[in-house]
Design goal:
Blueprint lengths: L15 E5 H18 L2 E5 L9 H4 L5 E4 L2 H11 L2 E5 L5 H7 L5 E4 L2 H12 L6 E5 L25 H4 L7 E5 L8 H15 L8 E3 L13 H15 L2 E4 L3 H4 L3 E11 L5 E4 L3 H4 L2 H4 L17 E6 L8 E7 L8 E5 L19 E6 L4 E6 L3 H5 L4
Length: 383
Amino acid sequence: MTSLPSFDPAVFPSPCYVCDLGLLRKNLEVIAGVRQRTGCKILLALKGFAMFSTFPLISRYLQGTCASSPHEARLGKEEFGGEVHVYAPAYTEKDMEELLPLVNHISFNSINQWQLHRKKVQDSSRQLSCGLRINPQYSEVKVELYNPCAPNSRLGITLEELKGADLTGISGLHFHTMCEQNSDTLERTLAEVEKKFAPYFKNLQWMNFGGGHHISRNDYDVDRLCTLINSFQARYGLEVYLEPGEAIALNAGMLVSTVLDIIERDRPIAVLDTSAAAHMPDVLEMPYRPEVIGGGQPGEKKFTYQLAGLSCLAGDVIGYYSFDTPLMTGQKLVFLDMLHYTMVKNNTFNGVQLPAIATYDPGDETVKVIKEFGYQDYRSRLS
């Protein structure tokens, strides 16, 4: 069981994503330590966490952002500053027109994409660094949905595809093979990358190790990570980039929700004002079971409930949890670790109310509601 937060959940709108700025700073200090010990550059992966009201804080620790679209790149450029990198499986001509004024690095997913857009990049009035995403065909990710190196993956260039290619104008290589993993996984992955692609390193300037590094997790081996980066840089003379997203906001935020109804079935069901499908889609996609403050495993405590979402999707179920006392209508429930891959992936299915976004600073116990959503936010996405 997880203890109660130092704030009263009732002070926030419901539902509401709450960023604990103290916990966010703690993560950033750990991650910035890697930069200090290795000289590598660390970018915020906007696909994982893009709460731009926190960018003035995060930008003190990180060197820029990495994007997967023109919209993300623009957000990084306008709200964060520093370097802006972009990678996408493919770019349209319109994408390139929007990206070229925004980014510092652009990585291509295939030789075809590089050849298609090469002249436009080289004709740009800005000095841009171009890279290729490689696929070492090695990954330890167990969930197929999140495995970038799964058989027949569209992500990255294999060694066979790279052979004989004209790499004139390419400054770096980018690989992303990990998801929520420790540095021992990176060590084994890096061995595969070097075994296959090291002959191509000699004319490069940088290597991007991608994301999926759970650097801020309590059991993460930071010493091993720093050793790997330092030894790689010493061997090849390349600048190393990391692109953590989840690690920036890991365990640094919550989702405050409210019990709307209790339905008596074989096991009681608590219907909440939040939704797995709309507000925390990874609960269904991964799938995983988020922790609830005061909640235990089914049967661990006296009263067990199914926590269910507000949409009409039959499977909009968060999971089974037990509590010391019966849940009551109007009671607040707080889900943990709800900053990454939540507000960047949520949706307005069924017109379900989007959670507000707020911050809590434990230093002075300041609560700030950054944004609340309403009908116009739902309507503006339709026509």
